[in-house]
């Protein structure tokens, strides 16, 4: 746009507003490799001491960070894979196939998409206790998958909607079945959607805190989110430099994925507006 | 049914199964649980019968004879098969045989009486201490034993030589039942508890303030990054995406550090002679400012993304035309951009309201409802009651009743949104009819 307008007041105003985030993020990175004497804002020496959690297990009977990271990775990958697989078929059915109750299913997906799922946590907690899935990673994965699913189906339906009908009609004219048409002709068209949804649900699971905290609080199935929260909670005299190192370690995959796939992920926010 | 139908239903099946299990079932169960007295005290499976000291105290208040209640609490010594085989294992076969011959089937109401009888036997242990230990093998009490059924409880009661009539049996069974039962007390409790009203009020304040911050700030950021030079816009966008993408635990940890009494704010203000304090929990107002900013920034982050993408969809020709006509920025925003953003804003507001009402993770991580209960919103209140109560038993039933309110609001609102956001447009019929 042309400049019939002074932009510097806006820049200054936004800069002041952004200050807390900039300060927090700057020190999140800085404090992991420096030490600061109490009462000062400027660090006085470089150190790698805050990263020692990577190599030694804390004496307080906490799990090793690598075990916890592996748990988190399993949790995020399995959730993401299940969400994508289920959304791929359900999204196609809702977008393209004639079936009984189609309107009802679509309405259901939309309603669930808006519905604040976290309100169900008490009932889910009791359900898992009754079925013996409480305190297992499998239970948390199932629940997280279910909660991500309405968004996933909705997003995939959106991607299928953009595939031209002509592709399918041509396939059918050549004598292929609907299933073959889906697998051979339509699926390749929605690969970008699959990738975006996969990344998105991976990140959603990676960042999830409440579900693992409530449904699998035990040491063996701990994920990074609960590991970190316990670290913060247990400490009487908080060592923020160490928290920040663990935090940066935990946030790194998220930041990297966003740096690389920024545009892909933003597409999903357009469809999934849940706060 | 046509083949496409079967394929469609088959394709839907996994999704239907998962949603049925983890949406439909929990919604129904929340309602069911809300009418029970389930807690961590009663357990969630069926209950058991157990007579405790508490039960003994309660019994007379319910019309149970005092003497009989006292009898229930007493230890009796009964010579039975179980005790005899324990005795032969610990003190040898001969002694056990003698006890069986002399005392089998007898009941003593104190150890002293039994020991006196035992002293008459030849094969008894020599030391009195050993004798007492051997007598204790016959101690029978129903106190603090879990019985799986009413019948088992009553059988044990008659086993120790107490006979009860039918009404006494009923009273005993009811008083000693430890499991959960059906009740509407949860709802009575909610409507009479001041803390519930407070939580409802807090929720209202929280949603209103946070929503204003997130929509206002989100809009401002979207507009600013739209007009600012490319480099600046990209920088602000990168900064403001952080609250949304950082995992909540880290994001809140950073706020905690900022406001901690050894953190940034305290150290910074020390230069101006202000005493360090925990700025997040120092007072109610502080806590409120913190949770509104913490949540508001996350909302603004999302708002910026959504509004920006909606603004990119506005045809550039409209903006160019307005500039040719001499419109300034304010007029451009007011007359062209905002009217085009009406639906995205409404949409985001509607969805954020609902998710703000129900979500509590950022508050839980930051103030946890404190100081005191000043920032405890309804969702967090339900969570504390059912799943995270430091003070006492976890009250699943009461928590479910609290959550059910939110579930009802959630379902009602999402159905309403479905209606206003033009559902029919979204369900165009498939074009291949086979």
UniProtKB/TrEMBL annotation, chain A:
Topology of the protein relative to the lipid bilayer: Multi-pass membrane protein
Database matches in InterPro entries: BP-dep_ABC_trans_perm, MetI-like, MetI-like_sf
Superkingdom, taxonomy of origin: Bacteria
UniProt keywords, alphabetically: Cell membrane, Membrane, Sugar transport, Transmembrane, Transmembrane helix, Transport
Keyword Transmembrane helix: yes
Predominant subcellular localization, coarse grouping: membrane
Residue ranges of the TM segments: 12-30, 73-92, 104-128, 134-155, 242-261
Name assigned to this protein: Maltose/maltodextrin transport system permease protein MalG
Species name: Roseibium algae
């Amino acid at each position: 746009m042309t400049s019939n307008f002074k932009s510097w007041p806006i820049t200054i105003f936004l800069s002041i507003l952004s200050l807390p985030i900039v300060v927090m993020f700057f020190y999140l990175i800085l404090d992991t490799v420096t030490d600061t004497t109490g009462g000062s804002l400027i660090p006085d020496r470089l150190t790698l001491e805050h990263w020692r959690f990577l190599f030694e297990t804390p004496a307080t009977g906490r799990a090793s960070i690598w075990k916890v990271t592996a748990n988190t990775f399993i949790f995020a990958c399995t959730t993401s894979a299940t969400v994508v697989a289920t959304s791929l078929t359900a999204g196609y059915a809702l977008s393209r196939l004639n079936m009984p109750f189609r309107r009802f299913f679509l309405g259901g997906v939309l309603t669930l998409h808006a519905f604040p799922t976290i309100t169900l946590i008490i009932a889910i907690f009791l359900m898992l206790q009754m079925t013996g899935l409480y305190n297992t990673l499998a239970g948390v994965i199932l629940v997280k998958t279910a909660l991500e699913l309405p968004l996933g189906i909705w997003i995939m339906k959106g991607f299928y909607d953009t595939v031209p009908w002509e592709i399918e009609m041509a396939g059918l004219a050549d004598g292929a079945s609907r299933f073959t048409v889906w697998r051979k002709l339509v699926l390749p068209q929605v690969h970008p959607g699959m990738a975006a949804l996969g990344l998105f649900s991976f990140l959603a699971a990676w960042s999830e805190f409440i579900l693992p905290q409530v449904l699998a609080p035990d040491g063996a199935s701990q994920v990074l989110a609960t590991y970190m929260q316990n670290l913060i909670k247990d400490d009487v005299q908080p060592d923020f430099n160490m928290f920040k190192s663990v935090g940066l370690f935990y946030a790194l995959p998220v930041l990297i994925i966003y740096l690389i796939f920024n545009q892909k992920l933003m597409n999903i926010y357009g469809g999934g507006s849940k706060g | 049914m046509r083949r496409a139908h079967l394929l469609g239903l088959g394709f839907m099946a996994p999704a239907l199964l998962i949603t049925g299990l983890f949406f439909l079932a929990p919604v129904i169960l929340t309602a069911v649980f809300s009418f029970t007295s389930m807690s961590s005290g009663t357990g969630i499976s069926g209950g058991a019968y157990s007579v405790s000291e508490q039960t003994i105290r309660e019994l007379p208040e319910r019309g149970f004879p005092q003497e009989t209640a006292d009898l229930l609490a007493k230890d009796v010594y009964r010579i039975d098969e179980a005790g005899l085989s324990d005795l032969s294992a610990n003190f040898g076969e001969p002694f056990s045989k003698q006890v069986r011959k002399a005392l089998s089937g007898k009941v003593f109401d104190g150890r002293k009486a039994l020991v006196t009888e035992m002293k008459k036997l030849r094969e008894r242990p020599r030391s009195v201490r050993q004798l007492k230990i051997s007598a204790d093998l016959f101690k029978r009490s129903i106190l603090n034993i879990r019985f799986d059924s009413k019948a088992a409880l009553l059988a044990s009661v008659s086993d120790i030589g107490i006979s009860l009539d039918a009404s006494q049996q009923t009273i005993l069974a009811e008083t000693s039942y430890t499991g959960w039962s059906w009740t509407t007390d949860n709802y009575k409790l909610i409507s009479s508890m001041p803390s519930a009203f407070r939580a409802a009020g807090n929720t209202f304040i929280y949603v209103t303030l946070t929503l204003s911050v997130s929509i206002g700030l989100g809009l401002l950021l979207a507009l600013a990054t739209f007009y600012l030079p490319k480099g600046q816009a990209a920088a602000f966008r990168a900064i403001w995406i952080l609250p949304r993408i950082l995992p909540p635990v880290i994001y809140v940890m950073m706020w905690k550090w900022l406001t901690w009494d050894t953190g940034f704010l305290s150290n910074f203000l020390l230069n101006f002679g202000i005493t360090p304090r925990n700025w997040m929990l120092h007072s109610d107002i502080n806590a409120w400012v913190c949770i509104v900013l913490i949540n508001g920034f996350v909302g603004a982050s999302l708002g910026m993304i959504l509004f920006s993408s909606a603004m990119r969809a506005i045809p550039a020709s409209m903006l160019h035309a307005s500039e040719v006509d001499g419109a300034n920025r304010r007029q451009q925003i007011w007359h062209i951009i905002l009217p085009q953003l009406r639906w995205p804003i409404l949409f985001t507001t509607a969805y954020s309201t609902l998710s703000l009402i129900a979500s509590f993770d950022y508050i839980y991580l930051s103030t946890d409802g404190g100081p005191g209960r000043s920032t405890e919103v309804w969702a967090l209140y339900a969570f504390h009651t059912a799943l995270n109560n430091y003070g006492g038993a976890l009250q699943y039933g009461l928590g479910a009743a609290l959550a059910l309110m939110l579930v009802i609001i959630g379902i009602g609102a999402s159905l309403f949104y479905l209606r206003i956001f033009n559902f029919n447009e979204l369900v165009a019929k498939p074009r291949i009819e086979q």
